[in-house]
Amino acid sequence: MKEVVLGEEAAFGNLPAEVNVGNDPYFLVRDESGDYKLLSRLCPHAGGYVMNFGGGALVCPLHYWEFDACTGSCTTVKGASLDAYPVTVREGVLVADMA
Ligand code: FES
Predict the structure, then answer these.
(1) Domain containing residue 47
(2) CATH number at residue 64
(3) Which of 39, 40, 41, 45 to mutate to test the pocket of ligand 1 (most atoms within 8 A of CB)?
(4) Is the full-model pTM beyond 0.90?
(5) Which residue in 15, 59, 65, 92 has a CA-CA distance of 20 to 30 Å to 82?
């Protein structure tokens, strides 16, 4: 298990929030249950980077695949999804499990 400390929960007021882990870009989001998770911004189609243009969807600007901003599931191509990693809150600090 590789745990990554993301920072104080209070620092992430607006979600989805852009977060880098090393050189890799992610979005911090919350799912319908209120649980945090990290979604990779690397598009599973052909390597574009997913963007947040608002409206509850994350969109890859290369070929316009769209992803649910809570779950990372692709809403335009069945079965595709962004890589997702669970995030827990420990004493007010967000910790991602990148295993
Ligand atoms: S690379 Fe993202 S939709 Fe094609």
Answers:
(1) 3-97
(2) 2.102.10.10
(3) 45
(4) yes
(5) 92
